[in-house]
Amino acid sequence: KNHEGKDVIFTEKQRLSKIEKRAELRDPKFINGLLKEAIQTPNFIYLDLDPLRGRHALYKIRYLVDGKPRYIKVVINPNVDPLFVVTAYMPDYVKERGKTDLIYGKDEYI
Asked: Which residue(s) pair with 64 in the sheet?
């Protein structure tokens, strides 16, 4: 379930299709802990950079390094039921910041 109580799925097929580019997806602790936490309690959500896809980028602050945040990012397709995880990983910046709309929460490190 996401922060709104809607069902979210991340299929094994999708995980395997992204595993080459996203090493985090090999770690069961990431899948069952951090990924789930980011979906359930994101700090903020941006619209995806490609407005035609209508995806959402969920961000959860994981920890700070020298005062700069590291994130858990989960890209969700909100246009299906249940919601569908497209990919997830741990970036050190917010790609959508200043380029798309913030649709949930507060991005404190602008």
From this structure: 69
The answer to whether the beta carbons of residues 18 and 25 sit under 8 Å apart is yes
Residue 55 CA, chain-centre distance (Å), reads: 10
Residue with tokens 């985090």: 24
DSSP 19-55: TTT-GGGG-HHIIIIIIHHHHHS-SEEEE-S-TTTT-
Collapse the DSSP code of 16 into the 3-class scheme (helix H, G, I; strand E, B; otherwise coil) and give the result.
helix
Q: pLDDT by residue (tens digit) across 36-80?
A: 999 999 999 999 998 889 999 999 999 888 888 999 999 999 999
pLDDT, residue 65, reads 85
pTM of the model: 0.93
- How far out from the chain centre does Cα 91 lie? 10
